[in-house]
Amino acid sequence: MPYQACRDSRKIRIMLKNLLITTLILSAVGAVTPVLSPVQSQAYAATYIEVNRIPDLLGFRQGDRLRSTGLATGDMQFTGLNHTLLDMNQQITLNSFARAAIEQVVGRSLSSKTNKVTFRFVVKPRRNGGFVYNLYDQGNRQLLMEGPVRIKVAKGASATSQDLLFEAEMVSMRVVFNKSGSKAGGQATFKVTGIPVPGSLNFTKI
Length: 206
Description:
By secondary structure, this protein is of the alpha+beta class. Helix content is 18%, strand content 45%. The radius of gyration is 16 Å and the shape is globular.
C-alpha cells in the first residue's frame, strides 16, 4: 500500500477510535452529566481553563446512579468519585454497527454475547501531570482503550450550572450540567477533529 494511503488509513482508524471513545467515554464521563436545552449547535465559545483535579460535578457523589439516552442508552454508577479519580461502571446497549466498529478498533471481540455490554471507565492522574483514561470490558476485565485526556472548566460556573470540556486525541467532549432543586441532569456533545458529531448524550440522576 502506498505510504500516503497507509497514513490516511491510520488517520481514519484514529478518528474512529476517538469517536468511539467519546461515545462510550462520554457515556462514562458524560455520565458525569446531567437534561437541558440543546447545546449541539453552539460553538465552544466559552473561555475554558485547564484544571489539575476533577471538579465537584454539581454535587454528584460516589454511589450515585445515572440513566443515559440519546447516543447511548443505559444505566451507570459512580463507583469512585473524588478530586483525583473518576471510576464508573456502565451498562449500555450498542447497535450492531457500533459493536462491530468497536471490535475492529480494539482488535478483539467484546465478551458480551449480546449488544448489551458492561464497561468500566476510569479517569485518573498521570505521573507527569494531567489525566489519563482507561476503558475496560468488565466481562473479561480486559483493557480496551487508554490515552491522555485534558479536563477544562468554563468560567462562570454556579451552584446550578457547570460547563466542562474533556479533550482526548482529536476528540472534544463538552458536558453541560444543570441542577434544579433535587433534579440533576445534563447533555454531552462531541467534536471529532473539530467537526461536531450529530446527536447528544442526555443524562439524568436516578
